[in-house]
Amino acid sequence: MIGSKAYDTLQWVFDPPPTIQPVWTKIPSWLEACDGVYWISGKAGSGKSTLMKWLLHEDRTTQLLESWAGSKVLLKAQYFFWSSGTSEQKTLSGLLRSLLYDLLRQWPDPIFEISASKWRSYDLELAHFPSWSCSDLVNALRVFLQSLAENAKVCLFIDGLDELAGDDKDRLEILGLLRDLSKQIHVKICVSSRPWQIFQDYCADCPQLRLEDLTRKDIRDYITETFEVDERCQLLRRRDQDTYTQLIFEVTDKAKGVWLWVIIVTHSLLRVLRNEDTVMDLLYRLRQIPEKLESYFLQMFSNIEHDYRLKSLALIKLALSSSNTLSLMTCSILDEQMISGEQNQEFTHNVPLQALSQDQLSERLSRAQRRVNTMSMGLLETVHRTGYRHPFYQHEVEFLHRTARDFFFNTKTQILVNMDLVASFDVQEFLCKALLVQMKMLDNPTDLLLADFMHCATLLEEESSAILLSLLNDLNDFLVTQRFAKWSNDLNGKSPVRGWGHRQQIPAPLLGSVPLLSLAIQYGLDRFVRSHIQSTPHLVTEKSDRPLLDYALRRRIYSIDLGQSEQLESPLGGANDQPDVELVLMILERGGDPNGKLGERTVWKYFMRFLDCFSSNLQCLDKQSMQPWLQVTELLIRYGAVRVLESETTVPRQSSGRTRVNLG
């Protein structure tokens, strides 16, 4: 990433050399003594986000802000807009929610003041807990900041104002809000954006800097150091020092302060450098490269041969569309299985069950890293992640900079690079196949691969249920062969995969003939589940370690030994939690027993306790979202649920307040 390249060059922020002209308001002075807004502007790829992150993590920033705060408590909060992120990541609402969360964690005292009506609703246990509107959030932030005037000082860092979703009206709204907030003497705000006219007008009187005016020396030093470590460049410098110096000057000048352009161009020049090239050859190549990033991206892709371009576009599409991180192992499979731009549709069946040796894995990853760099023309890079325990996940592929990602998200760009050439390449289908292939490459498959497969399967079901059914059957067949394998436990998060049968090394008969069935229920892959239950009804009673009925009723609960609330990463009540009424009925019709034993309790009692545990979440649902819960409760009673519980149980009702019923 650009950050790792540029971090070491930002010392000028606190120690400006005499060569830097006073064309900017020094950040240390603003941090230590000023209020209001400080504006960091710069072109796309110039390093604005890198500078903001560096400031946030630099000890000297905190020291200067503490000097400004004096005897008062210092609070800091940050937000990074991202146009390619989720919808919430690029809205005013997302900004406000994040700032409030960060600030309240540091200073929770005003939490009851910021929205008294919301707290009243919570205390009264109303059926519909009111959602937060943007106006509510603005008022809450205002009240919070006003309450701090005597006790604390606040500094906010907001990056990427130009990436706010919407038009100039939306931008004026957020600029007006920031202006009002910064008028309080105990609040200051550092913002960054591209130098669009609307921001120039708003920030005309603010202390500011334009990044490309201040990074010329940093960029020249980076270019020099990058060329110096290449033996071929050292030879060229000795042969023609003057032209070599001119090359560095022209790269620096042509960059116009854009770090992304510099990094791609320097590596591109080194990549095409041949043994007999002269410095003049490199200078000629440089002069053919457009100054604008977008034009340069298009030029790079126009130079790729037709068949090779298809594979390159498929890789770009994969990187754009992957909802999780993209592993280098998955990219290596793409490189192998796409021949002349066409995907080998049967490659999952052609891969034998054969574990890779450490040498084979290292060789595969090394080759894949070079291929990714070549196929993406340097726009994708491989990043080593030390946090992952499994070697298949230790190398990830991501865009060199989000500007490159944003460029390919643009509809006009996709037309210009002929992205329609890979329109038939289905990312989720490929990912499912690639993950299954990776499972076959291990003696001890990792549950990370299984969890990722199930996630991709839920996305694929929306696109092509027929293809998914075939893939799930393939996975189930594989799992049957792995009944006695020791799976690698690498998952850190809360996931249904964590409670799947192999974790406890359950004897094969208890897993049933379709070991994937319970997991498919939990992930909502109901077409696969119905297909197997319809064709083989005895599956309902075959799996005896935990009845299928319980999986259908409590989808995200993966262990009967843990507390129910411990197993949820997000509140209960969303679409992924709703029981499938038709599936529950199908299970009941084929012998599913509400009174069947599950440990010390019955399925019915666990379900009632489940409703009681999450009653506050369920009370917030609207009438339509509440219906599946009510309907399955009625079905369980109709099919003989014994209505006796040890204590009172709360069940949801479509009215204000709650209904307490004693089923004894």
Could you characterize the architecture of this molecule?
β13 and β14 form a beta hairpin. The longest helix is centred in the middle third of the chain and has 18 residues. Helix content is 51%, strand content 9%. The strands form 5 sheets. The protein has a 5-stranded parallel β-sheet, with helices on both faces. A 3-stranded antiparallel β-sheet has the order 6-10-9. It has 664 residues and is of the alpha/beta class. Among the domains are: 203 residues, P-loop containing nucleotide triphosphate hydrolases (Rossmann fold), CATH 3.40.50.300; 77 residues, no CATH class; 96 residues. α11 crosses α12 and α22 packs antiparallel against α23. The protein is built from 33 helices and 14 strands. This is NACHT domain-containing protein. It comes from Penicillium flavigenum. InterPro entries: DUF7791, NACHT_NTPase, NPHP3-like_N, P-loop_NTPase. Keywords: Repeat.
